[in-house]
Amino acid sequence: MQYLWAFIIGGALCVIGQIFIDKTKLTPAKILVGYVVGGVILGAFGVYDKLVDFAGSGARVPLSGFGNLLATGTREAVNEQGLWGALTGPLTAGAAGITAAVLSGLVLSYMTKPKPK
Fold first, then answer.
1. How many degrees, rounded to 5, is the angle at CA 38 between CA 13 and CA 27?
2. pTM of the model
3. Residues 95-112, buried b or exposed e (16+ Cβ, 10 A)?
4. Could you tell me where the beta strands, DSSP code E, fall in the chain?
């Protein structure tokens, strides 16, 4: 049942993004930033954590999950380190995912051949 809810919630987040792309004049970049900011806001109030508990990876994987990760990392670091944690918390929490994205991009850039437009 957990897989079903992850699929439904993750799919619903994607459908909402696609509706924004199709029905508004917002650029995809603005929509993606909106997802991250929305995840930060919902994570700051503890709402997104309840969604993650319910849907698992269906809520963690989209960009709103990255925003929640930043908010959670900031909150935990501020509790441990004080105000300095507001600067180090998001980087510490997101370091593994950011590193994986950069390294996989680097590896794939060596494996492919660019084509002129």
1. 70
2. 0.77
3. eeeeeeeeeeeeeeeeee
4. none
